[in-house]
Write a structure and sequence with these properties.
Blueprint (H helix, E strand, L loop, with lengths): L2 H21 L7 H4 L7 H7 L3 E6 L1 H6 L1 H10 L2 E4 L5 H4 L9 H12 L3 E8 L6 H4 L5 H18 L6 E6 L12 H6 L3 H12 L4 E6 L6 H16 L5 E4 L11 H13 L3 E7 L10 H21 L5 E4 L8 H5 L16 H16 L3
Parallel strand pairs: 1-2, 1-8, 2-3, 3-4, 4-5, 5-6, 6-7, 7-8
Helix pairs in contact: 3-16, 9-11, 13-14, 14-16
The chain binds ligand G3I.
Ligand G3I binds next to loops.
Length: 363
């Protein structure tokens, strides 16, 4: 290569690196800048009222970003893997399990005295090719699911606060979703998965999880499903309300509060499992959007605190630096810390909400 071309190529590469570098969100935030003056955090305030407050986590960020680890451990007392405990990443080939990333998550939680929620044992999505394309009989599919549950739940026996056993079992119209499990085993896959999970870890809490948490025909179907499981004596401790606000989920906190009540009558807990609120769902200036987002987080947290059967509140991430929404729906800035790990108005609104209840002694 001629010298001139070499220099030109080097300059182009350097310029590209600079552009890539500049397009990354800033990271140079001193950790000491982040602590609130009082030293209080979401975690410390939640603990005062025996509440779990948490976030979905990504192992890559855990290993690569000290600030991610620091803020996560400081602010939360419960975590859930965002992707790596699903069927495909855990069980990529019929005879192969990959536990490295889920182990990292569980280890992190242990080191920082946090609880872990397992997500997820049966879902229509995140299934490996060998399973999607395999031509299995009903008995074979039952064997595969049972073996998966025994292996995964068994590995973490005694270390998982609650398992999301069945994720998104319903279609938008409230009918049972025609997942691989439904088509291959029948609607009883839900009962079987719950029973097998209970056998593999008798002390973990079991829940089913979906979106559409307001008052509507889908939430009625979800309630009826939970009720029928309880009536049949199938082990079930809770239901999860995902709360992806502005994306298929409820926007009206009062409706969610109303919906929660009927689960208390069934003896079931309700977990808020995946809350996020893209600011792009609100009109106005950025400041107005951030204020509306803060209000939404505060309202949903309030619903959980006020309900006698809700003490677990998780968001689908905590920093806008890492959110599924940005890539998937284009929804912007959905979480409570910005891309540089600075707390947003939503964080302060949640702190204020927690403080108010600690202050009023409503524990
Ligand atoms: O980690 C792999 C990487 O190794 C690979 O090269 C790359 C190529 O596609 O994929 C990476 O995995 C991606 C993974 O997210 C980690 O970022 C998967 O493709 C991608 O499908 C996966 O998306 C996740 C999605 O569920 C499917 O599991 C999202 O992060 C996660 O936020 C989303 O979460 C769901 C809940 O489980 C259920 N409720 C709705 C919620 C939002 O869709």
């Amino acid at each position: 290569m001629k010298l001139r071309s070499f220099i030109a190529l080097t300059l182009v590469m350097l310029a590209t690196l600079i552009v890539i570098g500049c397009s990354r969100p800033p990271t140079a935030v001193e950790p000491t800048q982040l602590a609130t003056e009082s030293g209080e955090t979401l975690r410390s305030l939640a603990a005062k009222q025996d509440m779990f407050i948490g976030s979905a986590v990504r192992p890559r960020a855990l290993s690569d970003e000290p600030l991610y680890r620091e803020v996560l451990a400081r602010e939360f007392n419960i975590v859930m893997a965002e992707h790596v405990m699903k069927f495909a990443p855990l069980h990529p080939e019929r005879e192969v399990y990959e536990f490295r990333d889920s182990d990292t998550t569980v280890e992190f939680a242990k080191e920082h005295d946090m609880q872990v929620i397992g997500h997820v044992l049966t879902w229509f999505h995140a299934l490996p090719r060998w399973l999607r394309e395999g031509d299995f009989t009903r008995e074979e599919l039952m064997g595969i699911l049972r073996e998966h549950i025994n292996t995964v739940v068994g590995r973490y026996r005694g270390q998982i606060y609650a398992w999301d056993v069945v994720n998104e079992p319903l279609e938008a119209d409230g009918a049972l979703r025609e997942t691989l499990w439904y088509k291959g085993i029948g609607p009883e896959y839900i009962d079987l998965a719950l029973r097998w999970t209970k056998q593999a870890d008798p002390d973990t809490l079991l829940y089913i999880n979906d979106y559409g948490e307001g008052l509507n025909s889908k939430s009625d179907s979800f309630y009826n499903l939970a009720k029928s499981l309880v009536e049949r004596g199938t082990p079930l401790d809770a239901v999860g309300f995902q709360a992806h606000i502005g994306f298929l989920s409820a926007k009206d906190a009062a409706e969610v509060a109303e919906n929660m009540k009927r689960y208390a009558d069934l003896g079931l807990e309700v977990f808020i499992t995946e809350m996020d609120v893209p600011i792009t769902m609100f009109k106005g200036t950025r400041e107005e959007q951030l204020a509306a987002q803060a209000q939404m987080y505060e309202d949903f947290l309030n619903v959980c605190i006020e309900a006698p059967n809700c003490d677990t509140f998780l968001m689908w991430g905590f920093t806008d630096r890492h959110s599924w929404l940005t890539g998937f729906t284009g929804g912007k800035s959905p979480l409570i810390f910005d891309e540089a790990y600075h707390p947003k108005p939503a964080y302060h609104a949640m702190m204020a909400e927690l403080k108010q209840h600690v202050g009023s002694g409503a524990e």
